[in-house]
Automatic annotation (TrEMBL):
Major subcellular location class: endoplasmic reticulum
Subcellular location: Endoplasmic reticulum membrane
GO cellular component terms, semicolon-separated: Sec62/Sec63 complex
Biased composition (Polar residues): 620-630
Domain J, first and last residues per copy: 129-194
Organism of derivation: Piliocolobus tephrosceles (Ugandan red Colobus)
Keyword Membrane: yes
Protein name: DnaJ protein ERDJ2B-like
SMART domains, alphabetized: DnaJ (SM00271), Sec63 (SM00973)
PANTHER family: SEC63 DOMAIN-CONTAINING, TRANSLOCATION PROTEIN SEC63 HOMOLOG
Length: 699
């Protein structure tokens, strides 16, 4: 490393306090890049390995409760997963984020390589080594040192090299090296400071390139800083903010939320939701191509519309028929570009349908929420609104459903089919062995829910109107074994993998008003949830608990829980108050404590004034004892007592009379005199009778 420029110097020459050093910057920048690039590269490579060499669909990690996920392993779901992997190019698999990270890492590794190359070319820092200068070994004797000094000094002596400045500098170094090894003081300085002359100047530098302070590049450096801090960073923030402000906290566009809030009403049913989804802001952002009109007209002729369309806008019409083609499984009517557009719609449909459900539930529209859930299932399972739940079974169509509905061992819904033994299941006659295995695999992952619940008020034996009642719901997935959790669902026509989700809704029996709801994402075999609601009725009541699946038809369950609600006048509850709470109530508050201190201060100040007044009277009496007569002193005492006001007379007794007697109180003859009156009487009795009062100060 090259020598740093002196920052602090003893010379009279003034140098800058801070010096920029290129060599120090090389080492500093290289150290920072190594500390950042090594962990970032490790994380990036690890994520790439997980992305390309492990299939998340078949290698799910265990749940947070250490349960093993059970996912659908039918051939249709496997084909969907493989089809999704093959359809993506390398760039699509990596994604924009991974590609950007790759190029950034590549650029920084190239910079690190350049820095390493410069580090190797940097000269090492030169230190003072007398043995190296004299070219003797470290353990050389004094004679060897002197001999080497003689030879070197003769060779580089300035008299023998008059025109060679380097020889003179070399001679000085030789002399210093000889002194450092022979002279005791110089040797001690060398051992302590590394220099025979003693401590030298401190040399420091800044690990930044000199380019920053070079006058030739000042305009360039200033322009770069201006562009970075005043243009680039604010522009990135503004672009990010403009994009983010379009979305709500749930990831849905604000425009879509406003549209759904305005459109959804109490009478909205499942047949109206496809057009709502097609008209959302996310759907309208999809590209509309001229060639799409041909396919849209064909879909209009082939597909069955659940209701008359409201919108005639081309992009909404296109999206509407794409959704219907998916629900009716008519993918033969779609081009490759339209299939990609459909995948985009289905990708954000989960967020939007979730908003539809929440909007309905928050407005206490239970039937509307059920309709939104029905539409969500139709999208996930690619079913029409009027289709049978048996169509969810792999390789089943309308003909199989008709066969299953008729004759012996006929079933009407999905769970009845699942509960049958494999030998008694109908509709499997024309299937191949692999297709039959798919049906078996499907039946093992269909959620078969066993639900129970109870209602109670915490720490109470009766439920009274106005109480907050708690509903404890216990869910058991009987299709799972112990230490198993529900994995990815069976959805071969939905482009993305998905877990089960459930909605638990509590209502009064026969009433659609929602008391409480909870959204359950727990995939464990056994789940417990708690719902709390306000009891606002009196009498024998029944609460219906609905558990609704968001991805399967025919798996919903309902239980009724009955209880009796009493009026507050029927049940008188004793309120137990703990003794410690009573003691806390008796303790003065902070305000009361402050007021108490003020009162004490006021009373103490009044007492001090009274004591000072009495002390003053006594001192005046003693000072004027020899010169005051009895009458004058009595008059003075009387006037002084009167001047003290009401503070000196609490019981209303009269002052001292002119003749030295006590005041007459006809109303309270038997009342005891106050301490102040007794003190005044003592003072009067203390006055000598024959004392002259003409010169009294109290006159």
């Amino acid at each position: 490393m090259s020598q740093f420029r002196d920052t602090f110097t003893k010379d009279s020459k003034k140098e800058p306090l801070l010096s920029y050093d290129d060599s120090a910057f090389i080492f500093f920048a290289g150290t920072v890049l190594i500390c950042v690039l090594v962990p970032c590269t490790y994380i990036y490579v690890k994520s790439l390995i997980n992305k390309f060499f492990s299939n998340d669909y078949y290698n799910l990690n265990k749940s947070k409760h250490n349960s093993i996920y059970r996912s659908c392993k039918c051939s249709l779901c496997q084909e969907k997963q493989e089809r999704g992997i093959k359809s993506k190019t390398l760039w699509q698999k990596l994604g924009y984020k991974k590609i950007t990270q790759f190029f950034l890492l590549l650029v920084f590794w190239i910079c690190l390589g350049i820095l390493f190359k410069k580090m190797l070319n940097t000269k090492p820092m030169q230190t003072f080594d007398p043995f190296e200068i004299l070219e003797v070994s470290i353990g050389a004797s004094v004679g060897e040192i002197k001999k080497a000094y003689r030879l070197k000094s003769l060779k580089y002596h300035p008299d023998k090299n008059p025109n060679d400045t380097s020889a003179a500098a070399k001679f000085i170094l030789i002399t210093k090296a000889y002194q450092a090894l022979t002279d005791e003081i110089s040797k001690e300085n060398y051992e302590r400071y590394g220099n025979p002359d003693g401590p030298g100047m401190m040399k420091v530098g800044i690990g930044l390139p000199k380019l920053l302070i070079d006058e030739r590049y000042q305009l360039l450096i200033l322009s770069i800083f201006f562009l970075i801090f005043l243009v680039f960073i604010p522009a990135v923030f503004i672009i990010y903010y403009q994009k983010q402000k379009q979305y709500g906290s749930n990831g849905v566009k604000i425009e879509t939320l406003q549209y759904l809030t305005y459109t959804i009403n109490e009478n909205s049913r499942a047949k109206a939701y496809p057009e709502m989804l097609a008209a959302t802001a996310e759907s309208r952002d999809i590209q509309l191509r001229e060639i799409d009109n041909t396919y849209v007209k064909k879909m209009m002729d082939e597909l069955t519309e659940p209701k008359k369309r409201t919108f005639k806008v081309p992009i909404i019409t296109k999206n509407y028929f794409l959704i219907l083609a998916h629900m009716q499984r008519r993918y033969d009517l779609l081009s490759d570009d339209l299939k990609k557009d459909l995948d985009k719609i289905l990708e954000f449909s989960l967020l939007i349908t979730h908003c539809m459900i929440e909007i309905s539930i928050l407005r206490d529209w239970f039937l509307t929420a059920q309709a939104a859930l029905t539409f969500r299932r139709c999208l996930i399972q690619a079913l029409d609104i009027r289709s049978s739940s048996l169509i969810q079974i792999p390789h089943f169509d309308e003909n199989n459903v008709k066969h299953v509905h008729k004759g012996k061992n006929s079933v009407k819904d999905l769970l009845e089919f699942v509960h049958q033994s494999h030998e008694n299941r109908k509709g499997l006659v024309d299937m191949t062995e692999n297709q039959t295995l798919d049906v078996k695999a499907f039946c093992t992952i269909v959620p078969d829910i066993k639900m129970s619940g109870e209602i109670e008020v915490e720490d109470e034996t009766h439920i009274v109107k106005g109480d907050i009642a708690s509903i404890y719901v216990h869910i058991d997935r009987t299709n799972l074994n112990e230490n198993e959790a529900s994995g990815y669902i069976h959805a071969p026509f939905f482009p993305h993998s998905k877990f089960e989700e459930w909605w638990i809704v509590a209502t009064y029996k026969g009433d659609d008003r929602i008391l409480k709801y909870v959204h359950v994402k727990n995939s464990e075999k056994k789940v417990e949830e708690k719902l709390q609601f306000l009891v606002d009725r009196v009498g024998n009541l029944t609460v219906s608990i609905h558990i609704l699946s968001d991805c399967y038809f025919g798996c919903d369950k309902k239980i009724d829980i009955s209880f009796k609600s009493y009026s507050p006048t029927e049940i008188k509850r004793e309120i137990f108050v703990h003794p410690e709470d009573i003691e806390l109530d008796n303790e003065p508050t902070l305000f009361q404590q402050m007021m108490g201190d003020i009162r004490k201060k006021g009373e103490s100040s009044d007492e001090e004034e009274e004591d000072n007044l009495r002390a003053k009277l006594k001192s005046n009496f003693i000072q004027n004892k020899d010169s005051s007569n009895k009458v004058g002193l009595k008059n003075g005492m009387k006037s002084a007592v009167k001047s003290s006001g009401k503070n000196d007379s609490k019981d209303g007794s009269k002052g001292v009379g002119k003749d030295g007697g006590k005041g007459d109180d006809s109303k309270n003859d038997s009342t005891k005199s106050s301490p102040k009156d007794e003190e005044t009487d003592d003072l009067e009795n203390y006055i000598p009778e024959n004392e002259n009062t003409e010169d009294s100060d109290y006159d």
